[in-house]
Amino acid sequence: MASRKSSRATGGSPSPGSKRETKHGGGKNGKKEGLSGSSFFTWFMVIALLGVWTSVAVVWFELVDYEEVLAKAKDFRYNLSEVLQGKLGIYDADGDGDFDVEDAKVLLGLKERSVPAQPASPESEETVQPAEKSYVESEHKTADIELEEEIQSVLHEALHSHPGERHEDIDESVSDRWQAKEEIHGETFEAPATDDMLREFETEISEAYETPDSVQKDADPMVEDVGVVESESYEIPAIDDYVADLEERLSDPDTPGDSEIMPEDAVEHYAEDKVHEDYSEDQGIESKQTEDDVAIEPEESEKPVKAEDYSDDVQVGKSEKETEQDKTEKAKKKKKPKLLNKFDKTIKAELDAAEKLRKKGKVEEALRAFEALVNQYPQSPRARYGKAQSEDDLAEKMRSNEMLQQAINTYDEVVSLPNVPSDLIKLSLKREADRQQFLGRMRGSLVTLQKLVQLFPSETSFKNDLGVGYLLIGDNSNAKKVYEEVLSLAPNDGFAKVHYGFILKAENKIAESIPYLQEGLESGDPGTDDGRFYFHLGDALQRMGDKEAYKWYELGYQRGHFASVWQRSLYNVKGLKAQPWWTARETGYTELVKSLEKNWKLIRDEGLAVMDKKRSLFLPEDENLREKGDWSQFTLWQQGRKNENACKSVPKTCALLERFPEATGCRRGQIKYSIMHPGTHVWPHTGPTNCRLRMHLGLVIPKEGCRIRCAQENRYWEEGKVLIFDDSFEHEVWQDAESYRLIFIVDVWHPELTAQQRRTLPAI
Q1: Least packed by Cβ within 10 Å: which of 111, 142, 202, 365?
Q2: Amino acid 337: pLDDT
C-alpha cells in the first residue's frame, strides 16, 4: 500500500493527489522536491493508517501474548488501564518496549517485524479492542510520552514496595476445599487438625511459587546473603522395594480391608474424623454401643463449630517465655519452601499460566493445560503436581471417587521423578496420604506416611502423622512406639503428648495418661485443641476422683467442643432442644410410650426366657465403662438394622416395635435388653450424639439400691414405667441391690430432627 502510494505521488501523470501535493509542497517552479517536499500532514496520515492496520494484524495473527503482559502488570500492581496496555502492545512493533524510528520502519513495511508470534488467549483479545479505537483518536507522540512516564512511575513503585503487598488475590489452597467448615442439614463441618497443618504448609508454598520473575531476581541475592540454601532435590533409591515390603506386611489376610475399621471399644478407639469419608452418600461408621453409650470420636460432618471468642477461657497455653525449640520451629515456618527445580524455572511462565487457570476455578482448562505440559515436559515435577492438584479439584467438583483416585496416583508419580525439590515431595505425599484417608484407604495412607518418614527422618511432624495412621487401623501398639520416638526427640511436642496419653488411657493406665493429656493440651500445639482430648482428660480425672475434671470440661465447652459442661457428646446437630430429662408428651412419642407400658409384661417374659435358655445371647459390656460389677445386653436393633436371629427369640416384642419407625429406624441408636447385677457401678460418661433420646422401660426392678443420675438429678426405675432422658448429658448408674435389674432400652430420634435429617445422618 505504501509503495503504490509513493509511485503515484512521484509519477509523471497528473492526478488530483499530485496537484494537491504541488500546491502545498512543490517549489516555486512547480517541480516536486522529492520526500523533503512532502506534506507533513500526508505522512502523518500514512503512519496513522498503517498503525491501525498493523494493530489489527497484531490481534488477528495473535503476534503478542497480551495475557502474559496483563498478568505481569497485575503481579506488579500496575495501575494502568486496559487502554494504555493495549497502546503499548500496538506501538511497540519491534518488541524493544518503546516507540521509536525502528517501530516506524516496521509500520511502513521498510523493516521486518522481529517479535516472535505467540498465541493470545480470547481474554487478551478482548482487552485489545478498546485500545484500537483510542489509538485512532490519539496522537502518537503525546501518548508515547505519557505512557512512558506512567510506566516508569509504576515500575518504581512496584520495585520499591514490600514483597508481601504484591498479591491482590487471596486464593484457597487445595486442601482448604474439603476441610473448610460448612453446614448441611443443620450439622457442622470442620477440618481435622492434620488438614490445618497441611493447609498452612501449602499456603506458604503457594506464596513462594507466585512470586513474579522480576521480583524473584531481585530477591535472590538477598536470599543468598542471609544464607538460605535452595532446597535439595531428592532421588528415591530403592523406594519401590521398601514400599512393596511394607505393603506385604500390611496385607495380612486376617486384618480388615482398607475401608474397614474394627473399633475395639467406643471409649478408646481413635476414630479419626476422615474415616471413610468419600463421595458416596452413606458415610456411616459402625461401632459397638452398650446401654449407656459413651462419646466416640466425631465424624467431620458433626463436630461443633469452635467458638471464636476465647476471652473467658481458663488460661491454658505456653508460658510467655518461649523455649529455644519454639523459636527454632518458628524460624522453620518462616522459611519459604520452594517448588521449582532448575528445569521448572525455565518453563515458569507456562507453569504460571496453567496455575492461574486453576486458581481462577477453571478446573477443566487448568487440567488440560497441565496435561499438555506433562506431555511436553514429562520430567517436570511441578507440571505433574499441578496436574494432580487439578484432578483433585475436579474430583471435588464432580464428587467423583474415581477422579480422586486418579489424583492420588498422580501425586505419587511426582515423587518418582528425578530432581524433585524436597518441599514438593513433602507436599505431594502429605496430600496423597490425606486423600487416601478421605477414601477410607487407611492402609494405603499408612504406606504413604511411611515413605515420608523414611525420606525425612528428622521431621517429627511426619512421625506424628504416621502415629495417627496406625491409630486409624487400630494398631495402638505401633502408634505408641512412634510417639515414644517422637517424645525422645522432642520432649515438648504437644501433639505427640495428647496422642500418647490417649493410648495410655486406652490401656486403662488412667493415672499415667493424665499428665500427657494435660501437658499436651496446655502446649497449644496444632492438632491438640480437639474435643476428644478434653473429653478423655476429664474422664480420666473423674475416674481418679479429681474435681479438676470439670475445669477441663468447662474449657472444652468454651472452646466450642461441647454443647455444655454436662452435655459433652461429639456427634451433634446444632439447635436441638437440650435437657437431661423428658416427658412422653415433650417427645411427641406418646403412642410408643403407651404401647411399651401396656405390653411391659410380654416384653419382660420374652426377655426372661432368653436369660433362662439362651443366656449366651446377653453379651458383656466391653467399653470400659464399669468401675466394677457385671453388666450385659441383648440387642434387637442396631443402627436402624434389625437383628433377625435375635428377634426369633423374642418375636412378639419385635412385632410390637415394628409399628414405630422413630425407634426401629433410628440409625443412631439401639433397641435392647439390659441386665445389671448387684455391686455394679458405671462411671460418669456421655453418649455420642444429641440426635437421639433414650427410653428405659422397667422390667425387673429391685425395691432398693438401683438409681441413675443424669446431669444433676437422680431418678429410679419402676416396673412397667418408662424413663426418658437425653444420654448426651453426663449420666451415672449404681446397682447396689441384692438381685439383678432388667430393663428394656429403646432409642428414638430427637423429635426436632427433620425427615431429611433422619434419612441422611450417618449411622452411629
Answers
A1: 142
A2: 78
